[in-house]
Amino acid sequence: MSMWDFLDEQLSNPTSPLIVGGERILSAEFPEEVRARQVLATIGSGERTFTTIQRRAGIHETTLQRALAVLVGQKRMVSVERPLSSRPSRETHYAVADTYLRFWLRFVGPYMPEIELGRGDLAVARIREGWSAYRGRAVEPLVRESIFRMLPDEHFGDAQYVGGYWTRKGDVEVDLVGVEEKVRPRRVAFVGSIKWRKRTPFGGRDLGRIGPCTKITSGYRMQGFVQS
Fold first, then answer.
1. Which of 15-24, 48-57, 185-194 has the lowest mean pLDDT?
2. What integer is the mean pLDDT of 118-130?
């Protein structure tokens, strides 16, 4: 069946594997750690920075630090990323590490009351509405990991590590940044953009948003990879 047929079937049944799996994971991992579970749900809703997570969860800074220590260090359910560039930055982004749980926390868990009342169609409608934006961000770590497994490779210059870059205000964000050294790299080997589109190919406008580049490589399914 198609993805949408699968979601219609699973979200129409409160005891389906798609729904029950997430509930069991949270119950097993957080039998007593209420705050950690609350913070995980907040990150799963889309909040990525310490400040926005704290504001959305409505908890004290120290409490959030303790919860993140559990989620990142003990449970390894949340990943931590910092901008990769030749200038050190502490603008940390947090994300739910597991792809299934990330989807469940975003589209299923918050709407369990509706699903239990037989209105799974409302959940499916929300997924349809937000799917394009969600999948675009969800695929980014998968693409970075795929490139990382290919390194070293002449198509990516002397890069040994790959990550992303962003600023505090969020006015600049680069999906792919490759460097030779992960800690205090001296130069950037390549930058690139990740696009998931059905029709419109990667074009000059997309390239212009990344910045001045001198070479576009070909031969990859991921369009728009650029090397400086």
1. 185-194
2. 95
SS3 for the chain is CCHHHHHHHHHCCCCCHHHHHHHHHHHHHCCCCHHHHHHHHHHHCCCCCHHHHHHHHCCCHHHHHHHHHHHHHHCCCEEEECCCCCCCCCCCEEEECCHHHHHHHHHHHHHHHHHHCCCHHHHHHHHHHHHHHHHHHHCHHHHHHHHHHHCCCHHHCCCCEEEEEECCCCCCEEEEEEECCCCCCCCEEEEECCCCCCCCCCCHHHHHHHCCCCEECCCCCCCCEEEC
How many Cβ atoms sit within 10 Å of the Cβ of residue 208? 10
High-pLDDT (> 70) share of the chain, %: 91
What's the chain's Rg over C-alpha atoms?
19
Domains of the chain (ranges plus CATH)?
3-138 (1.10.10.10), 153-227 (no CATH)
| pLDDT tens-digit series, residues 3-25 | 999 999 999 999 999 999 999 99
Question: Cα separation of 45 and 29, whole Å?
Answer: 19
Asked whether the predicted pLDDT for residue 227 surpasses 50, the reply is no
